[in-house]
Design a protein that fits this description.
Distance between the termini: 15 Å
Strand content: under 5%
Structural class: mainly alpha
Order of helices and strands: HHH
Radius of gyration: 14 Å
Helix content: 40-55%
Shape: elongated
C-alpha cells in the first residue's frame, strides 16, 4: 500500500471527513438522513493513511514523492 494522496488532497479529505462526522454527531435530530454524515469516516481514513483505493483504478496519484 504505497501512498497516493498528496498534501492538499490529504488536508481536504480530513477536513471534509471531520465536517461530515460533526454533522452526524451534532446535527439536528429531526433530519432523517443524518446517517450520511458517517460517510465522513471514509475521507478521514484515506486522508490519515495517505492511500485511496480508488486512485489506482482511475490512474490517479496526487502524492508528489510517488510520481
Amino acid at each position: 500500500m504505497t501512498a497516493n494522496v498528496g498534501g492538499i488532497d490529504k488536508i481536504l479529505r480530513i477536513v471534509v471527513g471531520l465536517a461530515l462526522i460533526a454533522f452526524a454527531l451534532l446535527g439536528p435530530a429531526t433530519i432523517s438522513w443524518k446517517w450520511i454524515g458517517w460517510v465522513g469516516v471514509i475521507p478521514l481514513l484515506t486522508g490519515a493513511f495517505g492511500f485511496c483505493p480508488f486512485y489506482p483504478l482511475l490512474g490517479l496519484n496526487t502524492c508528489p514523492a510517488k510520481k
